[in-house]
Amino acid sequence: MMQSIPKFLTIRETAKTGILSEHCLRLMEKRNELPCVYSGNRCLVNFDRLLEQLNHPAGKGGDAE
Predict the structure, then answer these.
(1) Is the pLDDT score of 64 beyond 60?
(2) Angle at CA of residue 22, ends 12 and 48, nearest 5°
(3) What domains lie within the chain, and their CATH numbers?
(4) What DSSP string runs through the chain?
């Protein structure tokens, strides 16, 4: 079984893909909703996990039934 290496991008690089704005990504980071790791002060976004998170959002509010 071979695992793929995750793709890590800075917030600015992630915003340039057009998926979300830089402002939105930074707000998500502050709310700890962004799948990322830190290297010093730099926030590196796990791009693959972000796409998965956006495609399958966790149920917030309302009934799941």
Answers:
(1) no
(2) 65
(3) 8-55 (3.90.105)
(4) --PPPPPEEEHHHHHHTTSS-HHHHHHHHHTT-S-EEEETTEEEEEHHHHHHHHHSPPP-SS---
Nearest Cα neighbor of 8 from 55, 42, 53 is 42
Q: What is the pLDDT of residues 12-61, one digit of tens each?
A: 999 999 999 999 999 999 999 999 999 999 999 999 999 999 998 776 65
Instruction: Enumerate the β-bridge partners of residue 44.
Output: 10, 37
Indicate the pTM of the whole model.
0.79
Residue pair 47/7 in contact by the 8 Å Cβ criterion: yes
What does the pLDDT read at residue 12? 96
Residue pair 34/43 in contact by the 8 Å Cβ criterion: yes
